[in-house]
Amino acid sequence: MAVLVIADHDGSAVRDTTHKTVTAALALSSEVDVLVVGQGAKAVADGAAKIAGVRKVLLAESAGLGKVLAEAVEATVLPLAGGYDAILTPATTDGKNFAPRIAAKLDVAPISDIVEVVSADTFVRPIYAGNALETIQSGDAKKVITVRPTAFAAAAEGGSAPVESVAGAEAPKTTFVAEEMVKSDRPELGAAKIIVSGGRALGSAEEFHTVMEPLADKLGAAIGASRAAVDAGYAPNDYQVGQTGKVVAPMLYIAIGISGAIQHLAGMKDSKTIVAINKDPDAPIFQVADFGLVADYKTAVPELMSALG
Amino acid sequence: MKVLVPVKRVIDYNVKARVKADQSGVDLANVKMSMNPFDEIAVEEAVRLKEGKEHHAAGTATEIVVVSIGVTQAQETIRTALAMGADRGVLIQSDTDLEPLAVAKLLKAVVEEEKPDLVLMGKQSIDGDNNAVGQMLAALLDWPQATFAGKLVIEGGKATVTREVDGGLQTIAAELPAVVTVDLRLNTPRYASLPNIMKAKKKEIAMKAVADYGVDVADRLKVVKVTEPPKRAAGVKVESAAQLVESLKSAGVL
Q1: pTM of the model
Q2: ipTM greater than 0.90, yes or no?
Q3: Chain A residues inside the 8 Å CB shell of B128
Q4: What is the dihedral of CA A232, A234, A239, A244, to 10 degrees?
Q5: pLDDT tens track, chain B, 254 positions
Q6: What angle do the packed helices B74-84 and B37-51 form, to 10 degrees?
Q7: Do B99 and A109 touch (CB under 8 A)?
């Protein structure tokens, strides 16, 4: 069987999420091709060709693909779909946007956000905000799957696959208007080894930045936030960790002033080590924390900074 | 403009789901059920399109039809939407929880019957967490889609939607008719007032059956088992920040 991975990239290089999806694809088959959709994305395709285990890279370019409009991705992938038994892409906002669209056109059930490949037709995925794991077997001849990147190791570099161009499509009824990306020099939330995350207890946007940024810089960490902190305007939407935000699984997750609602836990409870700093000893976050410190963040964070040296 | 809003009856978001001992699924007996939180946001936005709240011109939406697919009790979910300001409801009765593909096919049939200019719906249901039906419906209709909407503007035959994407925000314009799926920050849904709850009782809910639509709703996925996620080992409480750093160092984390 042959598998097509639709790459996730930033316009100049493939993201780590693509490497992780290739790992999931290789668990299905050894015949793994990567499709890079974009505009002026030759460098991305060359990067994808270096992922170990990749058979060949297909490069499709168009204006619509540059902004990853779902309709353009769908129209690009459909003519290629005949040659593949499975189509995989990371469960990023882009992947979630176009994968179900492709599945519907192929008349197959999409399989969202898998965390394990049991066999070529059987997968594990979380449901109910991660409170249950569902093992499902697909009866469809073709499978369209999104992969939760944090659940798979990244495929190594060292390949040298050929790159071929394929036709790119447009999205006739949709136009890109603008984008506003959050600028950050810190590690990307999804790929960070350490995440410090702040909640509503921080009280204001100023306080959030004053407290979280020096700590994140000291640890080389990414900054996350609970939904309460995002809704209150303390942190940008993009920082949100949880069922409706990002799902992360860093080596170390430090939750500061976060109570630990079900929806937040859904986004971080697979972290290797969880630390909770909260002044409420009964906060649910302590039930999943490996190390808990019952203290006000106002005293605990400065002490933590000095203890880190 | 006619707006169709699909809503789903799901486990209340505050309830922690329990896996059944026989691993056949999640135990929903005697569990509080509510409207999927994202669907409430979709209903709210549709009502604002009608009332002309915030940046919407009054009367942008002229009729709001709410549709649900599920058990008889899903009427309560539709009734909630009617109390929020929707005009009428359609319930397609089904005793089993249908997969997103089947739901999208049924919704397509409803769209062909109702001919809305806009389908506004939640980005995902908090039970299946699939995040698929809106995109699939758009594909089946060959309509454009705008998912994860944090802001919606209807103007000049287009839905201009600011989408919440990884890394920030993206604004796209989709020609109507279109499918828009909503994210959490689009709005804060209202509570239905008592007079509106009373009025909602008089609004019509058309009762339909899956068979009325001649759509193949057979499951494509077989649930092999549903299990509890692995439990985390009990943690320890430390006394001070210094002890915390020490513990993290000895655990090899720092």
Answers
A1: 0.95
A2: yes
A3: 127
A4: -10
A5: 999 999 999 999 999 999 999 999 999 999 999 999 999 999 999 999 999 988 999 999 999 999 999 999 999 999 999 999 999 999 999 999 999 999 999 999 999 999 999 999 999 999 999 999 999 999 999 999 999 999 999 999 999 999 999 989 999 999 999 999 999 999 999 999 999 999 999 999 999 999 999 999 999 999 999 999 998 888 999 999 999 999 999 999 98
A6: 30
A7: yes
